[in-house]
Amino acid sequence: MTVEIPTTQRALVFDTWNGPLEVRQVPVPSPADDEILVKIEYSGICHSDLHVWLGDLKGMSVCPLVGGHEGAGSVVQIGKNVTGWQLGDKAGVKLMNFNCLNCEFCKKGHEPLCHHIQNYGFDRSGTFQEYLTIRGVDAAKINKETNLAAAAPILCAGVTVYKALKESNVKPGQIIVLTGAGGGLGSLAIQYANAMGMRVVAMDHSSKEAHCKNLGAEWFVDAFDTPDIVSHITKLTEGGPHGVINFAVARKPMEQAVEYVRKRGTVVFVGLPKDSKVTFDTTPFIFNAITIKGSIVGSRLDVDEAMEFVTRGIVKVPLELVKLEDVPAVYQRMIDGKITSRAVVDFSL
Amino acid sequence: MTVEIPTTQRALVFDTWNGPLEVRQVPVPSPADDEILVKIEYSGICHSDLHVWLGDLKGMSVCPLVGGHEGAGSVVQIGKNVTGWQLGDKAGVKLMNFNCLNCEFCKKGHEPLCHHIQNYGFDRSGTFQEYLTIRGVDAAKINKETNLAAAAPILCAGVTVYKALKESNVKPGQIIVLTGAGGGLGSLAIQYANAMGMRVVAMDHSSKEAHCKNLGAEWFVDAFDTPDIVSHITKLTEGGPHGVINFAVARKPMEQAVEYVRKRGTVVFVGLPKDSKVTFDTTPFIFNAITIKGSIVGSRLDVDEAMEFVTRGIVKVPLELVKLEDVPAVYQRMIDGKITSRAVVDFSL
Amino acid sequence: MTVEIPTTQRALVFDTWNGPLEVRQVPVPSPADDEILVKIEYSGICHSDLHVWLGDLKGMSVCPLVGGHEGAGSVVQIGKNVTGWQLGDKAGVKLMNFNCLNCEFCKKGHEPLCHHIQNYGFDRSGTFQEYLTIRGVDAAKINKETNLAAAAPILCAGVTVYKALKESNVKPGQIIVLTGAGGGLGSLAIQYANAMGMRVVAMDHSSKEAHCKNLGAEWFVDAFDTPDIVSHITKLTEGGPHGVINFAVARKPMEQAVEYVRKRGTVVFVGLPKDSKVTFDTTPFIFNAITIKGSIVGSRLDVDEAMEFVTRGIVKVPLELVKLEDVPAVYQRMIDGKITSRAVVDFSL
Amino acid sequence: MTVEIPTTQRALVFDTWNGPLEVRQVPVPSPADDEILVKIEYSGICHSDLHVWLGDLKGMSVCPLVGGHEGAGSVVQIGKNVTGWQLGDKAGVKLMNFNCLNCEFCKKGHEPLCHHIQNYGFDRSGTFQEYLTIRGVDAAKINKETNLAAAAPILCAGVTVYKALKESNVKPGQIIVLTGAGGGLGSLAIQYANAMGMRVVAMDHSSKEAHCKNLGAEWFVDAFDTPDIVSHITKLTEGGPHGVINFAVARKPMEQAVEYVRKRGTVVFVGLPKDSKVTFDTTPFIFNAITIKGSIVGSRLDVDEAMEFVTRGIVKVPLELVKLEDVPAVYQRMIDGKITSRAVVDFSL
Ligand SMILES: [Zn+2]
Ligand SMILES: [Zn+2]
Ligand SMILES: [Zn+2]
Ligand SMILES: [Zn+2]
Ligand SMILES: [Zn+2]
Ligand SMILES: [Zn+2]
Ligand SMILES: [Zn+2]
Ligand SMILES: [Zn+2]
Questions:
Q1: Is the domain covering C160-294 a CATH 3.40.50.300 domain?
Q2: CATH number of the domain at B8-142+318-346, out of 3.90.180.10, 3.40.50.1980, 3.30.70.600, 3.30.465.10?
């Protein structure tokens, strides 16, 4: 199998925070000995991409930059020391990479906690370009049968919700509350939770009720118009849900979750509130033996597991395919709160 | 074996919150069909006893009352439906009892979370009297060889620290920080932690350093005079301890613990801060995948396990034996912060 | 609510092993202080009932006897010390009862391992009669909405497969092999496994293929006509299933399972082979870090959890309702291998 | 820091199975880009080395060969792509290496189960030579303070027992039986078990009683002269030990362990019996919910953890330092059963 690799490629670049986003010709990189070159076919557009471009995450990102961290495509070149990859294999490019594979966190399979992490689309050129190099050990294996466009958002959004669900420790047959359930993460979470045997209480604005129930939520709670959320959920779930995952980016739902979760239940924080602070009352927390956990993306194994649910068709990703040139318009719709399905760049368009 | 049981007995009673504590003659109760009658030989004096008497816990206690919830003694009468107990057996009377043994929490071995709990020395007559009835399923089995005076404080203080250590999920060879390590709970915790293979960082006032190290702490951190606790502990433990148990009844050490605990580490809250509230920054919490847990006393199984370490002589309880009439004086010394070892009523004095 | 309770009732009795099974009038028992009286409406017929009657389990059963250990009905009388039950509540009567609730196994929620167990329909009068007493703490709570006829077999067959699936440690998205998948236990197991997110390989005689696939098996393996089962399953599952549950009552499938299970996978033994012995090769066992576990029925909590899947309609029990007088005929069909769905005595017939 | 590296070195080579073992001059290898060159200072002599040389493990070893797989020394040269290593660092060379770090087992931290494993001293030149190359990700980090001679045997023997103890799932305060407790693995296991809070029953020939008790065993059982081992241990441990680790290379102790282990307890198989087969009775196995597990060496993380107990001085390794030329004599003493402490080649002798 031979693939012709051009010397230049199209990439979406910005030179200043919140500055113009332009499609330019840039060189195609060559893989190092331990890297593969991936021809990106699809790249999901994540809210974090918007925030990086806006300059909201200056501490962890650089500029000028090519954004994007949910890339799926084909292997077109392979470094000489790489094992386990063949030309033509489908590969995924996720956010966190270049972990050392040799520290205590890497050895435990918690690579996202490694000190050596570099993030595509944050502090390194990302997936909003046609070709990208990545270490063989970092790229995600994707089956030939998997819908590649749907695979892209799993590499960040999908694995984030899947990992949070695992961390919740909610068992098949038990109940989980998902705040912000109608959004991008939440919509995936409802499906993953069902696939894992959990019973879902979806919380969001009332306009999302039908959407959430169609995806598999057993109950829906209006997050904005319910008089006493804590007692309502406690009653609905006969003592509180066994777990809660907070995708909402606000302080109040996080603090409420600690109050209504079942005794010995677990609240997982994924979304960050505005000022990042949360306050809670330790008396019921201690008396009810509650657990609060932070969860962020997932390991390489979590990615593989999350991907398989998509390959099997159990989790479906509502997609909107766009051109690379459309990314700025997608960002504007994100700012305006007008994105409902997952926007994914289709490089063939 | 026959034991003569009197019709009246000595008990320490108070009629009003913070009112006089008097030793009076009260009737000896008869055990119900599922109860045993225990002749109390020793009863530990817990800080909670003081707070109940002061009226600080009105919501969960009654008045007039006989306090005390750490009683150890001998079985002198047995209800007709009781199994598993013989006259002369040593028995322990702990805080929480009368759980239903039939709800989801009881069936999971989390009896302290049962809705049907009644607390000796809080909302029922406690162990500051010579005879007490308790259900056979609630009383703790104590070996004949166990030091009964030392067994008494294990029934509340001991099991509380042992359970918190289990909840910390710190493995043998890993590091745990104990705040308030020089106090009553902390002094037991250092020993239990060592017996469980953990390496201990003790935090307290500098005057407690020798005490903590003698009990087995590998490191000591001055909780009041260390300029930057967070970076000091992070450095000392090469990345943070794997777990922290907070026994200190203050807000600051709890908030610091969330900052210095190792990535993916666990902070267990046992002590309650003054106003009960704690605030923390969710950004590092999420990025470092931290867990916070509340822990309170322990199950019947936890009591049995905690007791065995004392029976084996692995955990030693520094004791001060006092008369029943001395309890008010002990309360005063608690208020003045002058209690160092565990005060235990010896009914033979 | 008042219910008239007769003084005598119909019961299916046998006086000698393998002797006549006759419906006779026997006295209705009165509940002790800690017991309830249940009017049995449905009683599942289990293979063990047959074996007890045949005298195959003499060590653990008595004679004369009323068999049956899968009873579901209504509470019609309540002992004075019972809490948590109301007249008219639906209650389940399972095999193992009278555990002490106070030994190390009971305290851990492993009541079936308690030394004090008595078994309805084995060493005590069972559910093949209209009225039965049972301790309040032993009876299973059943929701009013639950299909009572379907609830009955869950009390033994259902909880057995549910517990074995929990013990397999197979996670959502992972693969489990079920041997004897087309039988009574297996048919329930396929459904429970799916409800828990597992992917099922069903093994049985080729005539069961459609049946197993209809119930939710993803793959089917002919247990009798596949040339090399071990390599076939290894290939089919790309390295072996993560878990295996053996329901087949034969030695060969148990020994094969240890060979084809995935590295670090778990084989759960439920069914007993003829002579009870199994031999395996420890070299691959050790090199591949395999686990073998024995599993038997389940705790009271397991019963509650297993029941809820039926209440929710997720697990369906294929039923054949019969009269009490029909039990001997059902036994004969069991001996002839002609039972496909679960036979359940309907006392209203 | 500069270290002079010679072009040739001393190595212990054999050309035919069970043929002459000779010290010869062989070339010093150069590290590849991802490798380091380690100057071996100590190399433990393992029973497996003997069996490789004897030709008992032909399927997994090659010939001619330099044996040895417990090497500890200093880093003297570093490949250009290696991170995390400095010249002069202390490094350990263990048995299993070259795992892919990218398969499901590697991603879960079970590298010994990877298909890509190569074994030093088995199918690749091992540590019975002065210089060895190893990938940076495979070498074990050893602290400067660690006793290097004692570190060597931890790389195979130590991690094997430590991992088996972790796999036993025995908790602090619970009881473990160690068969073959007086041997090389067993002597380390007694110490590790104690350091992990376990209570140890040592089983071996009566001549080993004092040795085992000195190392920390609480009880000793004569494995050869006790009339009824099963009932003896059941009684001694009041219901059976919570776990058993079998180091004895015989069938009988393995089969007995399944009988006397506590209900719901775990038997870990490490040692291989002669013909490799084990037979057990599934009836008590199922009724008592027993678990049997195979365990082999450990992951890179297990090595690090096991090493730290030695660094801290908690686990002591009884050593006998020998010259490289002495290895054949040590093999002979192994065959004669005359090795008591761990023989370690000291390359400075
Ligand atoms: Zn993202
Ligand atoms: Zn790392
Ligand atoms: Zn207390
Ligand atoms: Zn309860
Ligand atoms: Zn019991
Ligand atoms: Zn049955
Ligand atoms: Zn691998
Ligand atoms: Zn070895």
A1: no
A2: 3.90.180.10
Would you say B203 and B211 are in contact if contact means Cβ atoms under 8 Å apart? Answer: no
Chain A residues whose beta carbon lies within 8 Å of the beta carbon of residue D78: none
Average pLDDT on C168-186 reads 96
| Residue spans per domain, chain D | 8-142+318-346, 160-294
Tell me if chain C has a CB within 8 Å of the CB of D273.
Answer: yes
Which of C171, C175, C310, C311 should be substituted to probe chain A, the one whose Cβ sees the most A Cβ atoms within 10 Å? C171
Q: A251-278 burial, b if ≥16 CB within 10 A, otherwise e?
A: bebbbbbbbbbbbbbbbbbbbbbeeeeb
pLDDT higher than 90, residue B338: no
C286 → closest Cβ in D272, D279, D283: D272
The torsion angles phi and psi of C321, rounded to 5 degrees, stand at -85, 130
Looking at residue A326, the DSSP 8-state letter turns out to be G
> What is the Cα–Cα distance from B298 to B312, expressed in whole angstroms?
20
Task: Dump pLDDT digits (tens) for D9-48.
Answer: 999 999 999 999 999 999 999 999 999 999 999 999 999 9
The three-state secondary structure class of B186 is helix
Residue type, D1: M
Report CB contact under 8 Å: D107, A301.
yes
Whether C195 and chain A come into contact, CB under 8 Å, resolves to: yes
Q: What letters, b where the CB count within 10 A reaches 16 and e where it falls short, cover B70-99?
A: bbbbbbbbbbeebebbeeebbbbbbbbbbb
Percent of chain C with pLDDT over 70: 99
**Strand, helix or coil for residue C311:** helix
d(CA C47, CA A95): 55
Q: In this structure, what token pair is assigned to residue C237?
A: 């599952």
Of C187, C241, C251, residue with least CA distance to C215: C187
Ligand 8 centre from D95 Cα, in Å? 7
User: Of D286, D251, D285, D284, which is closest to residue D269 (Cα–Cα)?
Assistant: D251
Question: Rounded to a whole number, what is the distance in Å from the CA of A16 to chain D's nearest CA?
Answer: 33
Q: May I ask the CATH class of domain A159-294?
A: alpha beta
Q: How many CB atoms lie within 10 A of CB C51?
A: 15
Is the pLDDT reported for residue D100 higher than 90?
A: yes
Interface predicted TM-score of the whole assembly (ipTM), two decimals = 0.96
Question: Average pLDDT by consecutive 10-residue portion of chain A (349 residues)?
Answer: 86 97 97 97 96 93 97 97 96 97 96 96 97 98 97 97 98 98 95 98 96 97 96 98 94 94 98 87 94 96 98 94 97 89 94
Distance CA A127, CA A70 (A): 7
Q: How far is the CA of A146 from the centre of ligand 4 (A)?
A: 48
Largest CA distance in chain A: 66
Round to whole Å and give the CA distance between C81 and C325: 36
Helix axes D300-311, D159-167, angle to 10 degrees: 110
Chains with ≥3 Cβ pairs under 8 A against C?
A, B, D
* pLDDT over threshold 60, residue D1: no
pLDDT in tens, B176-186: 999 999 999 99
Q: How many CA atoms lie within 13 A of D246 on its CB side?
A: 28
Closest ligand to Cα B48: 3
